[in-house]
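Quick start: what a row looks like.
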Amino acid sequence: MKEKIVLIIALGLSLVGIVCLFFLQPGVSPAELKLTGEITKISDKGSIQFIEFAPDDLLTVSFKGLDLEKGNVTLVGRLQEYKGRVEFVVMRVE
């Protein structure tokens, strides 16, 4: 009898946890990702660099003022939500 009560409580808490995770999504991806492609354009706006990166149609930004040049590169960074849109924030270049 006690096992059934513990099972019901555990299932209930699991469902509450899943619902909370659905509504409280993190704004930043915890995992580092690598994007490989070609930088076609770099726009400096003060301390922010906006990077046009092909073949992905993904907003790519750098806050660190990295020394970037046009051409093929591998960018390492994280996904972040900004104003309802997903952007890739570059941490470093490989």
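That is the whole record. The longest helix spans residues 2-23. The first strand starts at residue 33 and ends at 45.
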